[in-house]
User: Which sequence fits this backbone?
């Protein structure tokens, strides 16, 4: 079972979902509310044009007194924002309002503009009929009032898109700020942990080296010199570990080294410290494969990946390290036939705090990811996993041009 530790990093997936949900709800609510306002204004403009058309119809058929006509004319004149065209039933333009400024265009230019406006209005709103009557109050003809949205309504119609764009841009900015600040915080934890570990290892290591030299100088182990050799091996190993931790957070020195020899050394070290039922094999397309790496950090990454495979196998199984080398990429596959990784956990296993072991801290594979991707400009991922058949973790590193 995979368990997530909160010691160093909290699981932020719920927070991300909450923030995303709030953003979506804000967009839906705000755009919905603005659309309600737009529909209301559109309905009001329709009512204004209907009143405008009714007023023109009344004046055209009017037999009333001068005062009433004056009031109706005021209604007609009051429309100063909604573009209107009045035409006959054959769409020949009779009059227009709020479209062309006076004395700005020549007569032929005005006709062309009004013609285009009429086409647009016909595709925008249904026209309103003005019925013309004779003295007997019988309908003898009719005219059509075409209109389109006012500038205010057009501007307001763009507001939801502008609002959504602003919210999305701000969300991306906040996400990037959060991501980079979170990454910076994680980096500080990594570097602090590594430096402190190196410091803590350094003190007893210096002491052990001193005791080893004292034992050698006093010839206290003449009968069993192999003990000194084993002590020296362990001290050398501790020195390597200290150097590895010291390298975290610093810019690593990359040297052109034989990858195959480095992997072979890492596997040789692990062979002596795991079950004899686990078989290791290296499969390489070339005998010598050179690549610019940091020996300590890259060897650490390979060891951690192999240890992960050993944990998946238990006491028996196979680990194959396959090295592909071509002119574009260096590809290293660590393959085992252990318990495997569930599909939904392919990405999670590289996150800090995620462990497949009941007593693990979940730093091993996240450390590997950091070494490969940040220090060697490569990529690491789970290529595939089938339980008890084959699990492949792949490292890809680009060749320099």
Assistant:
């Amino acid at each position: 079972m995979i368990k997530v530790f909160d010691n160093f990093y909290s699981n932020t997936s719920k927070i991300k979902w909450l923030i995303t949900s709030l953003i979506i709800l804000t967009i839906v609510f705000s755009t919905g509310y603005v659309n309600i306002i737009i529909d209301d204004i559109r309905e009001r403009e329709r009512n204004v044009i209907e009143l405008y058309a009714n007023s023109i119809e009344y004046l055209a058929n009017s037999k009333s007194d001068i005062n009433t006509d004056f009031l109706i004319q005021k209604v007609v004149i009051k429309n100063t924002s909604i573009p209107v065209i009045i035409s006959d039933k054959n769409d020949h333009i009779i009059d227009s309002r709020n479209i062309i400024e006076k004395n700005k265009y020549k007569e032929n230019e005005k006709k062309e503009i009004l013609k285009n406006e009429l086409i647009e209005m016909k595709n925008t709103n249904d026209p309103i009929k003005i019925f013309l009557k004779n003295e007997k109050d019988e309908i003898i003809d009719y005219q059509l009032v075409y209109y389109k949205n006012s500038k205010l309504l057009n501007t307001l119609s763009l507001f939801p898109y502008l609002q959504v764009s602003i919210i999305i841009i701000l969300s991306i900015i906040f996400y990037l700020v959060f991501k980079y600040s979170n990454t910076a915080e994680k980096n500080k934890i990594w570097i602090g942990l590594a430096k402190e570990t190196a410091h803590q290892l350094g003190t007893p290591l210096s002491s052990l080296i001193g005791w080893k030299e004292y034992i050698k100088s006093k010839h206290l182990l003449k009968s069993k010199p192999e003990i000194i050799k084993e002590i020296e091996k362990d001290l050398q190993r501790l020195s390597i570990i200290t150097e590895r931790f010291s390298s975290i957070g610093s810019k690593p020195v990359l040297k052109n080294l034989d990858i195959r020899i480095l992997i072979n050394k890492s596997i040789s070290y692990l062979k002596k410290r795991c079950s004899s039922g686990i078989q290791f094999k290296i499969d390489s397309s070339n005998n010598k494969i050179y690549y610019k790496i940091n020996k300590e950090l890259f060897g650490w990454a390979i060891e951690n990946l192999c240890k992960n495979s050993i944990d998946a196998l238990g006491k028996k199984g196979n680990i194959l390290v396959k090295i592909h080398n071509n002119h574009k990429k260096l590809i290293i596959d660590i393959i085992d036939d252990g318990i495997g990784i569930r599909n939904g956990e392919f990405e999670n296993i590289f996150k800090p705090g995620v462990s497949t072991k009941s007593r693990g801290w979940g730093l091993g594979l996240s450390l590997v990811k950091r070494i490969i991707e940040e220090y060697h400009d490569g990529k690491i991922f789970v290529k595939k996993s089938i339980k008890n058949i084959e699990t492949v973790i792949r490292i890809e590193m680009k060749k320099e041009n």
